[in-house]
Amino acid sequence: MSKNLLALIGIFFGLLINAQNIRNGQSLQQDRKYWSDNQQFYLQFQNDGNLVFYRRSGTPVWESKTANRGSSAIFQDDGNLVVYGLRNRAVFSTNTADRGGNKLTIQDDGNLVIYNNNNPLWASTNGGNNGSSGQRSGNINLGHTFRSGNKTYSPNSRYYLSFQADGNLVLSRSNGTPIWSSDTNNKGGRAEFQNDGNLVVYDSYSKAVWKSNTSNTGASRLSVQDDGNLVIYDRNNNVVWASSSQQ
């Protein structure tokens, strides 16, 4: 067997062994598929700039929503997974910088997780930006765009946040009784928890019709809590906005 063939075989098996874990400082190659161990899920940084987590069938499980904006993706040395756009501007981030994240794992259970050794810091199913209908994590991370009709439940399933078809962002009890709203019915076109930490409802002309005014406050997550409160926390778990203080 030739040395070249042996080298190719070694590279192939090396990719298979290491595909499920992405280490610090690793840039994601465009259009390469990073597979889970069981070969049922893969992560791909597409040539359109979107970072997408897929089932083997090609069904998307999670995405960074950076299509036509992303130009590079990297799991940085500081433990942050970031998609950069023009002028090296971050258009998506898991906001896990400097928390000891040392591996990004494509798991057999269909979850994409950043770990600090064995401690999870971020997960695609835990409010990781796609807001799957009925998710019960309670947490929504920066960069999340709300999809009409999807519900993010509190961990105890007694409350949920949804962006309604009428353009209103509403926190409700599980029986549908509203607790808080952005009061943007018939005005809102989309809602986002932006990378700058601001929760905003925009109209169809991309004009803000409601916002939490939490941009550049260090806000890192939006939480639908078991006590029926909607809260924005900073990186140190300090409250920077709460629905109960806005009623």
From TrEMBL:
InterPro entries: Bulb-type_lectin_dom, Bulb-type_lectin_dom_sf, G-type_lectin_kinases/EP1-like. PROSITE patterns: BULB_LECTIN. The keyword Signal applies. It comes from the Bacteria. The keyword Signal applies. Keywords: Signal. This is Bulb-type lectin domain-containing protein. It comes from Chryseobacterium glaciei. The lineage of its organism: Bacteria, Pseudomonadati, Bacteroidota, Flavobacteriia, Flavobacteriales.
